[in-house]
């Protein structure tokens, strides 16, 4: 049942290329630079949208943070992302001008459903981005976009995060094109990168043994910091959550520029820093941050498409060129790192203590 893997989590990490092909299947027209999503968001509807509000919890919230950058860059629309349990509807003058997107793998998370209901009650249009056909979120929202990742058994969300970001990338193209904000050339470029995504993820999966060795070298440290910029910052948060959740060690993720505003005081040779260094996200500045932690003796593990970084990294895991999707590819490396650390520590990886797959209380 685990397909020869020791845990569902590892199986699901390895299922990512196939899951992503499913997310994309039949939805992409690369030549026209457009997508075909089975949603009711027409050009007329989208022309009226002044703001998109993404609401979600945990890993799905991190997918929302990633999507916010994509929507801002490629669809030229104002976007907010909020943890669902903190959400209050603050629409403009006309609630219908706000599109509220609930990102939820299960479609049953109580906090997310409650946020969505607040928005619907106020008169906003709602869209559920979910893995689960027939889930409460899918039924209650005005529209649903399925991420098609297949069932995920491990409590830790892995392939569903990748599929969420992929589906939200398609949604970005859909919205950008229909709002006249995205040229077919730029859209084709993003879609070409999406086509390359399963193969790029496979390259990281092929580095699994290497990451296992890295994990055993850096297991049992005081704390772990995860940093990156822009899209890389979303992934840094996700990498830290994964490690906390399944390895029960302290980890913190944040935008790399924030290091020098406080956390640097905690950095020692016993606090590995995992960094996402991709071409699209001011890698020079991130490299400066890396130098600061390196000079304090912290081991630096870099997931990098930025060649100039190599000299400053204790471990370099190369990320193939893939534009805005590079951090998503790097995240697969972070998943494997978390998995191997947790495995080394003998944790109950598929069912971490105190946690449930679907959180149905507020
Ligand atoms: O089903 P949802 O996407 O709404 O779940 C949200 C979170 O509970 C979930 O992502 C949680 O953070 C994961 N266990 C993280 O791996």
N-to-C SSE string, H for helix and E for strand? HHEEHEHEEHEHEHHHEHEEHEEH
Sheet having the most strands: 5 strands, parallel
Mean pLDDT: 96
* Strand residue content: 15-25%
Q: Strand order, main sheet: write it out.
A: 4-3-5-6-7
- For the secondary structure, the number of strands is 12
Number of helices: 12
The bound ligands are: 5-amino-5-deoxy-1-O-phosphono-D-mannitol
- Distance between the terminal alpha carbons, to the nearest Å? 33 Å
Helix/strand-derived category reads: alpha/beta
Protein model, in words:
With 362 residues, this protein is α/β, with parallel strands linked by helices. Helix content is 43%, strand content 16%. It has a five-stranded parallel sheet with strand order 4-3-5-6-7, with helices on both faces. It has a five-stranded parallel sheet with strand order 9-8-10-11-12, with helices on both faces. Strands 1-2 form a two-stranded antiparallel sheet. α11 (283-294) links the parallel β10 and β11. The model has no long low-confidence stretch (mean pLDDT 96). 5-amino-5-deoxy-1-O-phosphono-D-mannitol (M6R) binds next to α4. Residues 42-181, 214-352 form the SIS domain. Keywords: Aminotransferase, Cytoplasm, Glutamine amidotransferase, Repeat, Transferase. One of its GO terms (biological process) is carbohydrate metabolic process. It is found in: Cytoplasm. It catalyses: D-fructose 6-phosphate + L-glutamine = D-glucosamine 6-phosphate + L-glutamate.
